Amino acid sequence: MSVQEFFAMGGYGFYVWTSYGLTLVVLAANVVIPIRQRRQFLRQQALKQKR
């Protein structure tokens, strides 16, 4: 089995690698978005406390 055959996946490579890519994007977003929201929330709370 060559590397080219591995990436082609019997003609379904485009669909397989696209689904892996989309899954990776969704998983990364599930990590990054809550972190950003928490930082924004803490900044807002700090501003409210200063007032």
From TrEMBL:
The chain crosses the membrane at residues 12-33. The keyword Transmembrane helix applies. NCBIfam families: cytochro_ccmD. GO terms for cellular component: plasma membrane. This is Heme exporter protein D. It is a single-pass membrane protein. GO terms for biological process: cytochrome c biosynthetic process; cytochrome complex assembly; heme transport. Keywords: Cell inner membrane, Cell membrane, Cytochrome c-type biogenesis, Membrane, Transmembrane, Transmembrane helix, Transport.
